[in-house]
Amino acid sequence: MKKLEGRVAIVTGSGRGIGRAIATKLADEGARVVVNDLEDAPARETLALLEGSGAEAHAVVGDVAAEDFGDRIVGETVERFGGLDILVNNAGYIWNTTIQNHTDEQWYAMLDVHATAPFRILRAAAPVFRAAAKREAASGAVRCRKVVNISSISGVFGAATQLAYSAAKSAQLGMTKTLAKEWGRYNVTVNCVAFGDIDTRLTRPLEGAPETIDVRGRDLKVGVDRGTQELMTSLTPLGRRGSPEEAAGAVYLFCLPESDFVTGQVLVCSGGFIQ
Ligand SMILES: NC(=O)c1ccc[n+]([C@@H]2O[C@H](COP(=O)([O-])OP(=O)(O)OC[C@H]3O[C@@H](n4cnc5c(N)ncnc54)[C@H](O)[C@@H]3O)[C@@H](O)[C@H]2O)c1
């Protein structure tokens, strides 16, 4: 039997990159997965990929930062699959400048996507987790549920040019530790994975014609400058960038039944980079 047979998972921002690799890993291990992305086409591609490999999946397309998004994705998940067992708050992007060039719009955009959106999704999941815990306590068939919040080495150690991003990614650590304390009684573990340099479009060199992300009508270039990326690799003991599949592997550890007694933890998945 597969490790996550019968589990229902939400993975936000799973149209590409790390989110897609997490969705694929969870589906390969038997979970039914709710895919999300800001953009329709990548979300549909991931959905097709999962369904093509025989998994049950569903897509909820939309901006995680929309006010009603938390209720929408949790509501659709429960309606479609009858419950929620694994929640991975992964959706996000970067918007880098030094502090003197940080605008209020930039500050709030980073807080919206990396802190407020996970908060609202977690708040929407609370009654679902609570009801399941009560039901299962009464029947004696107790099951551990899992939340994994996605942070960054920027949120743990800081990173120049990422003031708003790092503040928002630090918020993930606080939410993780607080909810681990609130939700132990519901048998929900809440952990966090902070990534170092993972090879996705988010961290590809900003050269030629970089991809853009449409944030409420504003097109932002996605990527980092090559010098920063080379510096990161030189400071990474494993001497290379991580793959999305390796990143997904770290998230998977917290989704397994073997980690049922681990909660409130931050796992740095960075090839050893700890600056
Ligand atoms: N790649 C890295 O090196 C790295 C390092 C640290 C942390 N992270 C974090 O990992 C997560 C995934 O990043 P990635 O590297 O896979 O990037 P990516 O750009 O490859 O994929 C992110 C996906 O999230 C989607 N997305 C962005 N904003 C969204 C929104 N508001 N609503 C719904 N979907 C949205 C994008 O459309 C995209 O498909 C992010 O939270 C990022 O901050 C990545």
Structure summary:
The chain has 275 residues and is of the alpha/beta class.
List the helices and strands and how they pair.
Blueprint: E1 8-11, H1 17-28, E2 32-37, H2 40-52, E3 57-61, H3 69-81, E4 86-89, H4 104-139, E5 145-152, H5 153-157, H6 163-183, E6 188-195, E7 212-215, E8 218-221, H7 226-234, H8 244-255, E9 266-269
Parallel strand pairs: 1-2, 1-4, 2-3, 4-5, 5-6, 6-9
Antiparallel strand pairs: 7-8
Helix pairs in contact: 1-8, 3-4, 4-6
Nicotinamide-adenine-dinucleotide binds next to helix 1, strand 2 and strand 5.
What features would you describe in this structure?
With 275 residues, the protein is of the alpha/beta class. The protein has one domain: NAD(P)-binding Rossmann-like Domain (Rossmann fold, 3-Layer(aba) Sandwich), CATH 3.40.50.720. It is 44% helix and 17% strand. The chain contains eight helices and nine strands. Strands 3-2-1-4-5-6-9 form a seven-stranded parallel β-sheet, with helices on both faces. Strands 7-8 form a two-stranded antiparallel sheet. Strand 2, helix 2 and strand 3 form a beta-alpha-beta unit. The N and C termini lie far apart (41 Å). The protein binds nicotinamide-adenine-dinucleotide. The site of nicotinamide-adenine-dinucleotide has 30 residues, from helix 1, strand 2 and strand 5.
